[in-house]
Amino acid sequence: MSLAPERGIGMTSQRTRDRMVARLREQGVRDELVLEAMRAVPRHLFVDEALASRAYEDSALPIGFEQTISRPLTVARMLEVARDGRSLDRVLEVGTGCGYGAAVLARIAGAVFSVERIAPLLERARANLRPLRIGNLRLAHGDGHRGLPEAAPFDAIVVAAAAPQVPRALQEQLARGGRLVIPVGVDSQELTLIERTAGGLRETRLDAVRFVPLRSGKG
Ligand code: SAH
Question: Which stretch of DSSP H or E encloses residue 22?
Fold first, then answer.
């Protein structure tokens, strides 16, 4: 490996990551565990080398296959909402993309499962994640509409692509007290929280967001 995670210099250094976290605080992120996880994960290792110097900017970046890595604020916000100050045992991510979100999640949850429909993108995520040697993360190739029944139920499910409606299987795979965070909508999307309470499912609409679409089938 020519670029070890701890060897980042200049625009990819720990100081750059610290500045990103300071900005996230200013933008209202309060969850210290999420902030610490994002301080630790070298985001520049998940984008193309040509984009590495922009990895800590407050923007989404292309990761190939017409997909994007979400902007840091969006990642932080989704994880903060999903966690809600609880300790998370099992978590499902739908839309592995470059693997960044999964790497952050693995630092805040006991066991993380992440599903991606585009096989070559999943391979890229594996390659990005390998040097980080994360022991509590499993990647799977499949259509996230189905969730991951064999690993359910989950304390939290985070969906990194927008759906017209909340997929039923994902709601069904929530543990009691579990929280599903998903962008819902086609042209205009809203980050939506579904909670499984003792009385049933409760839905709350949060911020306006912009995500790539959740697609059907394997790519
Ligand atoms: N968390 C990712 C974000 C990637 S963008 C990251 O940190 O990079 C959203 C991803 O969702 C894309 O990789 C896209 O291929 C994937 N996706 C879209 N529809 C999907 C589906 N039905 N099942 C699984 N993954 C899906």
Answer: helix 14-26
- Gap from CA of 81 to ligand 1 centroid (Å): 19
Pairing of strands 88-94, 154-159: parallel
Question: CA 114, CA 197: separation in Å to the nearest integer?
Answer: 24
Distance CA 205, CA 193 (A): 6
pLDDT digits (tens, 9 = 90+) for 92-140: 999 999 999 999 999 999 999 999 999 999 999 999 999 999 999 999 9
Q: Which sign, positive or negative, has the C-alpha torsion 46, 104, 72, 169?
A: positive
User: Minimal CA–CA distance to 219: which of 63, 113, 95, 99?
Assistant: 95
Q: Report phi then psi at 172, rounded to 5.
A: -70, -25
> For residue 125, which atom of ligand 1 is closest to its CA?
8
Q: In the structure encoding, which two tokens stand for residue 43, read together?
A: 């985001």
| CATH architecture group of domain 10-209 | 3-Layer(aba) Sandwich (3.40)
How does 190-218 read in b/e, with b if 16+ C-beta sit within 10 Å?
A: ebbbbebeeeeeeeeeeeebebbebeeee
For 75, the enclosing helix (H) or strand (E) is: helix 72-83
Q: Is 70 among the catalytic positions?
A: yes
Peptide bond into 5 cis (omega under 30): no
Ligand 1 centre and the CA of 5: distance in Å?
Answer: 24
Residue (of 206, 177, 210) closest to 193 by Cα position: 206
The single residue of 13, 70, 114, 188 carrying the catalytic annotation is: 70
Percent of the chain with pLDDT over 70: 96
